Amino acid sequence: MPSISDSKCVLIVGSTAGIGRALALAILDLPSQPTVIVCVASHNATERLKSVTLDVLSERNALKCSIQDIVNTYPDLDAVLFSSGIQRAFDFTKPETVDLDSLESELATNYTSIVSMITFFLPHLIKLGEQGRPTFLYTVSSGLSIVPAPGIANYCATKSAIHSLSISLAVQLKEKNVHVVEIIPPLVESELHDFEGTTQRLSNFWLSLEEYTEGDPYVPAGLVVNQHKQFEEGKLEAATKMHGHLKAMTQT
After folding, report:
1. Considering Cα of 178, then 75, then 41, then 206, what sign does the dihedral take?
2. Which among 76, 88, 170, 188 counts the fewest CB atoms within 10 Å?
3. Closest CA to 111 of 167, 40, 164, 70
4. pLDDT: is 19 or 83 the higher one?
């Protein structure tokens, strides 16, 4: 099966810190030597490491134009990895403290903006795929998409949405030679936790970025492996069968 090692040019959305930055460096070190594009405000570009500016929360038409500019600048782009995300804690036992603006921002950053970007990148990726060149969409969910942490309920819900979307897109786009791969990390070292002030406490439990990127991040990793086996094994195959049944029904 084609993999990231077959890519010539990889864009990483959400690469300023955490998993996204670590994956950018890991992909840069692949023997296949792909061009890696990171989304940062500024960066010292090299022959293989490029940078672009992309505001994932910009107005829809502006986002579409930004993505078209990226595709025009990098026509060899054949893989996009979505790693942008924020995490907020909400206590629904005290509903008056729930900041709905913050909740909606988390939903937009972690899910709806990613759906929009996927939609805007797909015409280019499908075109390459139809020319016989495998292309890739990499999504980053979380072990919390399988077993949620109630204190960060909305974050877990966004990751569950990414998880479900990834399965559906993997089935839909397979015939277009667009390969959808979901990265399901465990609790991993990340600046994501700084906002809530939990970095010091969680650092006793998380998997370091160095450990995480030394393995194969394109499968469930760490503590998530057992959770995935218990709750998720066979779901992709079941979704594929359902998709086939529904297509057959609509064609008769």
Report:
1. positive
2. 76
3. 164
4. 83
Return the pLDDT at 103: 98
pLDDT digits (tens, 9 = 90+) for 112-144: 999 999 999 999 999 999 999 999 999 989 888
> Residue 174's pLDDT band (boundaries 50, 70, 90)?
very high
pTM, whole model, 2 decimals? 0.82
- Residue 225, token pair as written in the block: 């492996």
DSSP calls for 11-65: EEES-SSHHHHHHHHHHHTSTT--EEEEE-S-----SSEEEE---TTS-HHHHHH
How far is 153 from 157, CA to CA, in rounded Å?
6
Tell me the longest C-alpha to C-alpha distance in the chain: 59
CB 67 within 8 A of CB 117: yes
Separation between Cα atoms, residue 31 and residue 108, nearest integer Å: 35
